[in-house]
Specification:
This protein has 377 residues and is α/β, with parallel strands linked by helices. The protein has twelve helices and 17 strands. It is globular, with a radius of gyration of 21 Å. It binds 5-beta-D-ribofuranosylpicolinamide adenine-dinucleotide and zinc ion. Zinc ion (ZN) binds next to helix 2.
Length: 377
């Protein structure tokens, strides 16, 4: 390192030129980091639903052409002016929810949704309103403040955390989104208590991570709900105790679950992104105290509904972004937890592919055949 500091770097990236088209592997230019920015060499990245969702044109904020990807891990290549606490060579994970430590959200212990760079991040730009990526003379948009589908990326220093250098990049990249989100939904957002009965709707990466959190919290029963029975075997390894396939019943799934649990669940989690299952998850909760957490992201314009009586009689409806973790403080601790073998990551990786096979990874995600596909540069 050192020889590239302050220079434009040429590298490979998967460019999304437009919605609903496969990504194309291109040589791009990555400008040096500006004030309070850091350039990172990405070593491993995984494909998450939000990437696919944006590529499918379902995200109203998606801007093209762009460099997608937000579950990644890598090494600091160089730091911009005024950056503190990072040096070239540090092992890092980009954070799509930053933690500035100063805004009113960061100052509140009640939330993790830092708003410092929310506007520009949503526009696919760096905090100064510009881009660090160009390809064939054209500027490319950033994505979720991370853009990990590029060998080199530039992120804001509040959107990055330093982690234990002994942890494997191809595993800890998963902590950038799905796994941290599900795990935190159970432990932070729901705050599941020991002995409780939980139901998890959707057994993808997020749902499996919720199960891991429920188990850690000491839940007694963890019921997995999925229409794809191939997911059940793996869910058991994470701590799922029972399974229900909604397509096997005449009755609505909430009634099935209420019958199975003598009146309903203490906690339910929606990890699908479907407004119908969000309603079912709420209504499957026990009267008086049941809590339902929405994690799945529904398509633009969708609305949730239920009878107000459901809430009046003591059920609580909540939601979570990144599992409620204050990102910079928490992700390094989750990495340590993985190293201590008290957090599973290896089991989430269904496939490992070279970065240039990224479109194959998207197909595996769409077909339901993969929990996560990890790409290595
Ligand atoms: P995934 O597609 O791997 O898993 C979804 C699972 O749901 C699959 O196993 C499906 O078979 C199952 N499923 C689909 N429809 C139904 C149904 N009607 N009834 C029961 N099961 C069904 O996705 P994932 O685990 O990667 O992500 C899940 C959602 O979480 C998705 O909407 C994603 O965008 C969202 C998410 N949210 C955050 C956040 O911060 N809130 C972070 C990361 C992901
Ligand atoms: Zn903040």
């Amino acid at each position: 390192m050192g020889d590239t500091t302050g220079k434009v770097i040429q590298c490979k990236a998967a460019v999304a030129w437009e919605a609903k088209k496969p990504l194309s592997i291109e040589d791009i230019e990555v400008a040096p980091p500006k004030e309070n920015e850091i350039r990172v060499k990405i070593i491993a990245t995984a494909i998450c639903h939000t990437d696919a969702y944006t590529l499918d044109g379902l995200d109203p904020e998606g801007s093209f052409p762009c460099v997608l990807g937000h579950e990644g891990a890598g090494i600091v290549e160089s730091v911009g002016p005024s950056v503190q606490g990072f040096q070239p060579g540090d092992h890092v994970i980009p954070l799509y929810i930053p933690q500035c430590g100063e805004c009113k959200f960061c100052l509140s212990p009640k939330t993790n949704v830092c708003s410092k760079i929310r506007l520009t991040q949503g526009q696919g730009k760096m905090p100064d309103g510009t881009s660090r990526f160009t390809c064939k003379g054209q500027s490319l948009y950033h994505f979720m403040g991370c853009s990990t589908f590029s060998e080199y990326t530039v992120v804001a220093d509040i959107s990055l955390c330093k982690v234990d250098p002994t942890a494997a990049f191809d595993k800890i990249c998963l902590l950038g989104c799905g796994v941290s989100t599900g795990f935190g939904a159970a432990l932070n957002t729901a705050n599941v208590d020991s002995g409780s009965t939980c139901a998890v709707f959707g057994l993808g990466a997020v749902g499996l991570a919720v199960i891991m959190g429920c188990k850690e919290a000491g839940a007694q029963r963890i019921i997995g709900v999925d229409i794809n029975e191939n997911k059940f075997e793996l869910a058991k390894i994470f701590g799922c105790t029972e399974f229900v396939n909604p397509t096997k019943f005449e009755k609505p799934i909430q009634e099935v679950l209420i019958d199975l649990t003598d009146g309903g669940l203490d906690y339910t989690f929606e990890c699908i992104g479907n407004v119908k299952t969000m309603r079912a998850a709420l209504e499957a909760c026990h009267k008086g105290w049941g809590v339902s957490v929405i994690i799945g992201v529904a398509s633009a314009g969708q609305e949730i509904s239920t009878r107000p009586f459901q809430l009046v009689t003591g059920r609580t409806w909540k939601g979570t972004a990144f599992g409620g973790w204050k990102s910079k403080d928490s992700v390094p601790r989750l990495v340590s937890k993985y190293l201590d073998k008290s957090l599973m990551l290896d089991e989430f990786v269904s496939y490992k592919l070279p970065f240039t096979s990224i479109n194959e990874g998207f197909e595996l995600l769409h077909s339901g055949k993969s929990i996560r596909t990890v790409l290595e540069y």
